[in-house]
Amino acid sequence: MALVWMYTSLLIFHFSFLKPSRALRNYPENEVTLLDSMSALGDLGWEAYPPEGWEEISVMDERNTPMRSYQVCNVMEANQNNWLRTRHIARDGAQRVYVEIKFTLRDCNSLPGVPGTCKETFNMFYYESNNPSLWFIKESQYVKIDTIAADESFTQTDVGDRVMKLNTEVRDIGNLSKKGFYLAFQDVGACIALVSVRVFYKRCPAAVLNLARFPDTVTGGDSALVEVHGACVDDSEEVEAPRMYCSADGGWLVPIGRCACRPGFEESKDHCQPCSPGTYKAAASDEYCSKCPPHSHAHQETADECTCESGFYRSRADTPAMACTKPPSAPENPVYTLNDTSVSLEWDPPQDGGGRGDVTYDVRCRKCPGDGRKCSPCGSGVRFLPRQLGLTSPRVLVSDLLADTNYSFSVEAVNGVSDLSPTARQQVTVNITTGQTVSVILKERKSKDSVTLAWHGPDRPDGAIVEYEVIYYEKNQRDQNYTVLKTKATVMTVEGLKPGTTYVFRVRARTDGGYGSYGGEIELETSHEDMLAIGDPNQSTILVVSVAGGVVLLIFLVACFVVSGRHCGYIKAKQDPDEEKVQRGRVKLPGSKTYIHPHTYEDPNQAIRDFAKEIDASCIRIERVIGAGEFGEVCSGRLKLPSKREIYVAIKSLKAGYTEKQRRDFLSEASIMGQFDHPNIIRLEGVVTKCKPVMIITEYMENGSLDTFLKKNDGRFTVIQLVGILRGIASGMKYLSDMSYVHRDLAARNILVNSNLVCKVSDFGLSRVLEDDPEAAYTTRGGKIPIRWTAPEAIAYRKFTSASDVWSYGIVMWEVMSYGERPYWEMSNQDVIKAIDEGYRLPAPMDCPVVLHQLMLNCWEKGRSDRPKFGQIVNTLDKLIRNPSSLKDLANVSTPDLSVGTVDEWLDAIRMGQYKENFASAGYVTLDAILYISLSELSKMGVTLVGHQKKILSGVQSLHAQGSQVQV
Ligand code: AMP
Asked: Of all helices (H) and strands (E), which one includes residue 853?
């Protein structure tokens, strides 16, 4: 007994040495403590039996506060069976709880004289019950949690120099369903001090993300994720239903969807605040409130639109972001050209367009009798070309007027807000008198090659007469050729005519207001021989010809006006052919969803201007280099645009000394990326092209490329997390295929991962697939293709389609599920092509659910129309996330060939050859030796990655299985 006391005091002595401290115990935010023995002030009140077994004692912590703990040290007697049972621990809704125990355990060898029955382990049990006050539970009713051994026992190495470590072990109990449970510790003859017992469960602490509030959530009972729907914070609304997953270890994962502040509110940290007076926000978006546009104001908070100042208006088509505007002033400087009974009117645009670019013109026509009576509307007989109202150019041709009539034309300028203004429209007026006919007097002075004509001018010319125009042509030949002559006199001799030929002559006057009407046609035949005069030289034939004669020519002139603007030749001239205006489809139409290849552009700089925002270099702060791209370094840094919050960005720069082609290829990535807007596609923030170096700015993806990220985190994710990753990639690819964009180089190395584990498709450069990708190899047809990721038809005859992207997506699935393993391992490209052609497909990675491997196999269908579309893939993955039990069936991993003789061969067979040295130096040289290897031994020998530990232990199990088969 004395010995026991001595050992016990030794244990107690060490408590102060260990300095357990309540005060310093700060538990992680996502752990909720159900029981903590260290915080109990009085007796813990646990049940110990038999009475000479576990004993409750009080020790002082380093602050001299008493602390309760239990110890037992009956090492001198055999057949010990000492139980210590906690009080009832309510589980508080948790399905999985964790038990953290801190204890010290004496090494039997360090206790002189103890018999061989001395133990160095103890057992931990639990019993679920709704009854909080059970005083007896049968030993056989307890469920065993584990046998606990010390990592570090303590040994007395010298008097007063003892080495002791506090052991900490954590075990978990899953799938709890009753109100609570009791914990029990069974000692079977060891020397133990139970310093502290803490029972806790994990939860995902309440969080606000993307303006959605997620409640405190208790983690699931098994390792599945718990899907949680977020609620939009006050004054925000759902853009896409927000949800996240609460993982087993209390972390939030895979955020999907988001809320945005509603109109009149803007985001401030995790809430929405009202737009301040003088600012507004029109839509539910993640923009900030903007200053009221010109000529508008918002006197109150929460404005979703600013009100126009008096005299200013906003048309129905105007967005709230547009300035308020007013009607235009009157058109100016009208001029006209009269042409018989048609008049062409032109004017200058108004000085003040009212602040708008949509000015059009309306023309009103009034006929004025000139006898004192009032002017009246012209009526429908008058024609306006191209139209009377809504003219976009400052000109109009008015035809079919009456000859010799006074007209008054008023022209109004109109814009999108003219109808909203109560004031009369501003206009300018022109008064015109239409043309009069010329009275032609024929003097029949003919020779064999000339004719002399004389005429009277019009009685009331519209302005001073400038000249007369004589037109003539051979009878019936008008369409082939006619001649126009001009003179200021009222007589003309036309020479150079053919003898004995009939000609048609017509005359009209031009005043400074335009042309009058033609007089009627007169026909004259030249003589066959020279003669001075035919008939009486004094005889004059007077023909006053009707206006009708001019109509044919008028139609021709009008046609000229319409087709070629104001240039209408006298001599029959060929019209310019219609200029064909080629619409090259380069400008993205609003709502258009089709990707436009930058090569469609003759000028690549135009593509950049159309699709990428130019960023001022002073808004960018480069912080560090994070990678190397084809054209230069990739850096991370920050971007602060005016009235936007600062964000982290990745900055790709074009190295100095580039050729024009390199610049074009470099920027092509931005003109492609700039056309996309999707949460799973890397977002382009803009480009810097106006100064050097030329840069492409994209959102920053904290976890870099997916392949490296997976290798670094081998085995760390649950299947649901991996499916979440795959869902994101599929959703991005669906968007690209909907836009008819074919990626051609989809691979984990070209996916980027951000801090929320959201994956985004990247790498869109034009030359990349061919030049940049180290995986790309030359095919027999000369192209460079990443063979392992590419569909057979794309390798064979370059048939790249969204269906070939689906094939690559299947390979990405395989990369993800195998944590970045190289597809087809070390097989050569040629062997891969051959194997695929013969029907071989990659087997399921370890621990891969059957359904996922099946989906991969579907993506690798030989016939491309048999492969699923990206939309179907997204739906399938969504279903799996909603129903995680469908992921429980793991694919039958084709068991590695373990007919191996040595440990090295075995490690190679399970693809863990990198640990050969670790095994050898730890003394594992025969297969027998590894059959009982434990997790802690693996850790000790340096196999620390959970995924690798799992692979090795499952390899050990296969060895066991093979061994037992042989025995059978
Ligand atoms: P790339 O030229 O696009 O292949 O980029 C080269 C490397 O830079 C990638 O493998 C990534 O590691 C890194 N990188 C590129 N873009 C980003 C980004 N937006 N965020 C974080 N890292 C990036």
From this structure: helix 850-859
pTM here? Answer: 0.44
Indicate the pLDDT class of residue 17, thresholds 50, 70 and 90.
Answer: very low
Residue 965 has pLDDT above 80, yes or no: no
| Index of the ligand 1 atom closest to the CA of residue 772 | 4
- DSSP H/E element including 277: none
pLDDT tens digit sequence for 486-498? 888 888 888 888 8
Burial class (CB in 10 A: 0-12, 13-18, 19+), 191: buried
For ligand 1, the distance from its centroid to the CA atom of residue 640, given in whole angstroms, is 20
Residue 370 reports pLDDT greater than 80: no
Peptide bond into 293 cis (omega under 30): no
User: Which residues are CB-neighbours of 296 under 8 A, at least 6 positions away?
Assistant: 306, 307, 308, 309, 312, 314, 323, 324
* Model confidence band, residue 223 (pLDDT cutoffs 50, 70, 90): low
What pLDDT shows up at residue 451?
Answer: 83
Quick one: pLDDT at residue 813? Answer: 98
pLDDT-derived band at 684, boundaries 50, 70, 90: very high
DSSP line for 150-176: -SS-BEEEETTEEE---EEEEEEE---
Numbered residues of the known binding site for ATP: 626-634, 652
184: tokens are 């029990």
Token digits of residue 209: 């993300």
d(C-alpha 100, C-alpha 31), whole Å: 12
Give, for ligand 1, the residue of 633, 705, 769 to mutate: max count of ligand atoms closer than 8 Å to Cβ.
705
Indicate which atom in ligand 1 lies nearest the CA of residue 627.
8
Cβ atoms within 10 Å of 186's Cβ, excluding its own: 21
958 phi, psi to nearest 5 deg = -60, -40
Ligand 1: residue whose CA is nearest its atom 4: 629
Query: For 679-703, what is the mean pLDDT?
Result: 95
Q: Is 889 a catalytic residue?
A: no
Q: Which residue has the tokens 């030329």?
A: 694
Which residue, 939, 900, 899, 901, is CA-closest to 918? 939
Beta-bridge partner residues of 253: 245
**Are the C-beta atoms of 509 and 458 separated by less than 8 Å?**
yes
Nearest to 410 by CA among 376, 361, 364, 345: 364
**Active-site position among 362, 745, 773, 847:** 745
Token pair belonging to 831 = 């062997």
Determine the Cα–Cα distance for residues 871 and 737; give it in Å rounded to an integer: 9
158 Cβ neighbours under 8 A, 6+ residues apart: none
- Distance (Å, whole) CA 294 – CA 654: 40
E-strand stretches of 535-607 = 540-544
Q: Which atom belonging to ligand 1 lies closest to the Cα atom of 629?
A: 2
Could you tell me which residues are annotated as the binding site?
Answer: 626-634, 652
Mutate to test the pocket of ligand 1, among 626, 750, 753 (most ligand atoms within 8 A of CB): 626
Atom from ligand 1 closest to the CA of residue 630:
2
Q: What is the pLDDT of residues 911-926, one digit of tens each?
A: 788 889 899 888 888 8
Pocket of ligand 1 (CB under 6 A): 626-627, 629-630, 634, 650, 682, 698-701, 704-705, 752, 762-763
From residue 131, alpha-carbon distances to 94, 128, 139, 589 in Å are 17, 9, 17, 70
Comparing 98 with 955, which gets the higher pLDDT?
98
CA–CA gap between residue 413 and residue 349 (Å, rounded)? 8
For ligand 1, atom 21: residue with the closest CA: 701
CA-nearest residue, atom 13 of ligand 1 = 627
Say which amino acid occupies 428: V
For the record, the structure tokens of 903 come out as 């440990």
Nearest CA to ligand 1 atom 15: 634
Taking the centre of ligand 1 as the mean of its atom positions, its distance from the CA of residue 402, in whole angstroms, is 76
* Minimum mean pLDDT range among 15-19, 73-77, 672-676, 723-727: 15-19
Burial group, residue 688, by CB count within 10 angstroms (0-12, 13-18, 19+): buried
